[in-house]
Amino acid sequence: MAQLEMTRDELLALPVSVDLTTAGRAFGIGRTAAFDLARAGDFPCRVLRVGIKYRVPRSAIFEALGVDEGALADSREPNPAA
Asked: Which of these, 17, 19, 45, 80, could form a disulfide with 60 (CB 3.0-4.6 Å)?
C-alpha cells in the first residue's frame, strides 16, 4: 500500500502540475476522497478539468498549504559559502 502523506522532499519535487491522486497525497487525502471532493467542487485547492482528467497546479497546492514557493526555491539552492 502506498504511503498516504507526502514528505517535504516529495512536495518540493512536484512538477508544475500533478494528477489528482498526487495532489490528494499533499493534503493527506486518499484517492477516492480526492475524486469525491473534486467532483463536488470541495477539493482543498484549485483543480483544473482537462477533458476527462483532473490536473492540479503545484502553485495551487503550495498556496493552500501556505507554502512560499520562492522561499522553498531559495532553500534548495546550494550555499556557496558552505
From this structure: 45
Closest C-alpha among 30, 25, 29 to residue 8 = 25
Q: What ranges do the domains of the chain cover?
A: 8-76
Q: Which three cell numbers stand for residue 61?
A: 497546492
- Greater model confidence, 73 or 1: 73
Q: At what angle do helices 69-76 and 58-65 cross, to 10 degrees?
A: 100
Could you tell me if residue 57 is left (phi over 0), alpha (psi between -120 and 50 degrees) or otherwise beta? Answer: beta
Chain centroid offset of residue 37 CA: 15
